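Appendix B, record 7
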Amino acid sequence: MWVSVALETDAAHADALSDALLAAGAISVSVEDALAGTELETPQFGEPDATGSGPATPLWNESRVVALFDPGEDLIGRIAAAAAAAGIEDLPEIELEDVAEQDWVRLTQAQFDPIKVNQRLWIVPSWHAAPDANAINLILDPGLAFGTGSHPTTFLCLQWLTETLRGGETLLDYGCGSGILGIAAARLGAASVLGVDIDENALIAAGDNAANNDVTIALRHSRDKLDERFDIVVANILTNPLCVLAPLLVGRIAPGGRIALSGVLASQADQVIAAYAPLIALRVGAELDGWVRLEGQQC
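Structure tokens (predicted):
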């Protein structure tokens, strides 16, 4: 049996309270929007600000900090001490809820079913049988790196790859995360694939996922030199980095080559299109759940 503990605080104390609860013995802590589910809910996507130094928006001013504890002696006292250590003078109301012991692995796996991209392509967790043996089935489990096919931005890019690739192309997946786009491209017939990422763990995950799908993709850290040109360039990142990377990404497109960008909210599409306008004309190719895919072709 576990105990879930929830307290409300403001953005200025949420991080400190999280750290203090962990120091008090919590095995996990999360910070949520206390107004989630109301018209005052504030979505956050973790996008860095223009300087790249931190999130463009802070934590919610009305934050809900949720911690999971192994029941022990004087739990309320430990929580009160954690709140005081975080600089919270008036102890907020504490919500306690018993959490039954569960098979967490099985419960987590149950949340990830096969994802049908289209008739041609499926994303299948390793613990599931492939729903369509005649389709291309990518074996991919949730992990540390972003990209399982469930997020609209990844889904939009996968759809574009199935529509665009004819076989024999060279492809650059910039910000490759789990490697899902590059792996899909290889399975769809790309002659060669290069995945680039800023995160060493993502590169490791991408290599492992490629091996699990019996394909080979080259992997490179973003700090390393990149001067090749590619028939296809795809980048599923976020708006601010995409704008900063415009010269680099457009410069990697071979003559006649094509580019697809995602990780862009519909409300941000014009911003990205304007950033790329001196280099290449982009258009909105598709939209899903408030996210868009931008597409262009090099002359």
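Remarks on this record: The mean pLDDT is 88. The chain has nine helices and 14 strands.
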